[in-house]
Write a structure and sequence with these properties.
Layout: H1 2-14, H2 45-55, H3 68-71, H4 118-127, H5 136-144, H6 149-157, H7 164-176, H8 184-191, H9 197-206, H10 251-255, H11 287-297, H12 307-311, H13 327-338
């Protein structure tokens, strides 16, 4: 009996112990807000590495051909270049793919703000019939039946038993590392140097509230507040005067309130030159078309039109009912928008497909 007891203790002593995951060092650009990381899903090296693999894992789609990275492509600032996203079965989504740049700070996810956390949102594209069209449970089974993933989940979460919750936690850990803050504008904001006269004029227009016939502006900052340049981070939704009637009710679908019909978040303008086409339905293919809309073509009688667009008239006498930017001012605003391109973000190997050389 004594020998048996010693043998059992010896076996227990040599059982492998899984090391605790290593905290991930998150580098936040100067001037950016404090990171938003849930207490129950801290970033770790192992979790982020696993999440990166899952982000590009086609086993999470019904026919093993599509991953999150199919619609969120790094070279397009994690969009897809399409007016409206196309799912695994070839079905066209009613809306375009949103950029994931700086998504860590978003407290309203998707165009209509249907989700308030990344963990809550991450399951939608996987299970949605017009996106990846597969239940989380089936995806978990596929991963569990590989030799690759159980050890990676053990390293990240201390267990080889894969669950939907752990899968979504790993995915969102990776997504929170997708920080874009090294554009020419960011360098200028730190040094006050490096922008041309036109780019500086565009920044001033972008950041200026109009005083009719006195101070000219483009008022972009109301909806696209620097440095994050999106209303995802402030839970705000806007009717920007695209239509008189709404084929897509936007925020109204979520709230059920008529006054929210036709309202959407203002998406990030970071890397905007890489994320065409524009608007929730991709109706504009160029930045010139976008500026023309805000300057000259806002539907002023659109129900629930944002008050800033109603009031933002540079010259109510000679150009009533329109913001009325000049050709030069439009060109200057676009020149500034181009400074928001972050070439390091779209080439960073930490964010790339790990299954490709």
């Amino acid at each position: 009996m004594a020998l048996a007891g010693c043998s059992k203790k010896k076996e227990e002593a040599i059982d492998p112990v899984v090391p605790a995951p290593t905290p991930y060092t998150l580098v936040v650009p100067a001037g950016f807000p404090t990171p938003v990381i849930p207490a129950d899903n801290p970033l770790t090296n192992e979790g982020v590495a696993l999440g990166r693999m899952l982000f590009y894992e086609t086993k999470l789609s019904s026919n093993n051909t599509m991953s999150c990275g199919s619609c969120h492509q790094q070279n397009k600032a994690f969009t897809d270049g399409l007016a409206k996203a196309v799912g695994v079965d070839g079905i066209v989504n009613p809306r375009g793919t949103m950029s994931l740049a700086n998504v860590m700070w978003s407290n309203t996810l998707t165009w209509d703000g249907a989700f308030s956390t990344l963990e809550a949102q991450a399951h939608k594209p996987i299970e949605n019939p017009i996106e990846m069209h597969q239940s989380l449970a089936i995806g978990v089974t596929k991963l569990q039946n590989t030799n690759t993933y159980p050890p990676l989940f053990e390293a990240a979460f201390g267990t080889k038993t894969i669950t939907s919750d752990l899968m979504l936690k790993a995915l969102t850990q990776f997504e929170r590392t997708l920080i874009s803050g090294n554009s020419r504008y960011d360098k200028f904001s730190r040094t006050q140097q490096g922008l041309s006269a036109d780019e500086l004029a565009g920044l001033k227009l972008y950041s200026t509230h109009i005083t009719p016939r006195q101070v000219r502006g483009a008022e972009c900052f109301h909806c696209h507040t620097l440095p994050l340049t999106s209303s995802n981070f402030a839970a705000q939704f806007f009717n920007n005067g695209l239509d008189m009637t709404f084929a897509d009710a936007g925020r109204g679908i979520v709230t059920g309130q008529a006054f929210d019909n036709g309202k959407f978040v203002a998406p990030t303008l970071r890397n905007i030159t890489l994320t065409a086409p524009y608007m929730h339905d991709g109706r504009f293919t160029t930045l010139e078309q976008v500026l023309d809309h805000y300057s000259d073509h806002v539907q002023m009688n659109s129900p629930g039109l944002d008050p800033m667009l109603i009031q933002g008239i540079n010259d109510p006498i000679f150009n009533p009912g329109r913001m009325g930017l000049t050709a030069t001012e439009k060109r200057q605003v676009i020149a500034f928008l181009k400074t928001l391109t972050d070439s390091t973000f779209i080439t960073d190997k930490r964010f790339s497909d790990p299954f490709k050389p």
